[in-house]
Structure prediction request, 140 residues.
Amino acid sequence: MAAGAQLPGYEPPGDTERAGLYPFYLLTAPAHFALNSNFGQLAPLREREGGPQVLLNPDDCRKKGLVDGTLAEVYNQRGSCLLKVRASSDVPPGVAVAPGVWWCQHSPGKRNINSVIGDELTDLGGGSTFYDHRVDIRPL
Prediction:
């Protein structure tokens, strides 16, 4: 960085103003048996992964009436998708983790997690903001 240049500052997540409507920070983490949407054609790997799912803190599941192993709708102002609920104490309260990017043809309702992700770019470097979104989740 050149002399006299300013350091980057903190920018709050873009969806912060929607916290009342969408209480969960969404993390789209890598799946264990896939790389993004790669290897989606391999049924044995899809089966090992257990299908499209969202991991939530057990307390959040109780508050929202979500039952482990059942389908729920993950949604925000951009769209929605259906994911299997997995309760996990490894996930902090207020966070929803959706591992992998499942092919739509292998997703319930034929929509995947990309349905709730925006295409805005970061202010520094023009990178993806796919970790900068909020969602809500409701049982079917």
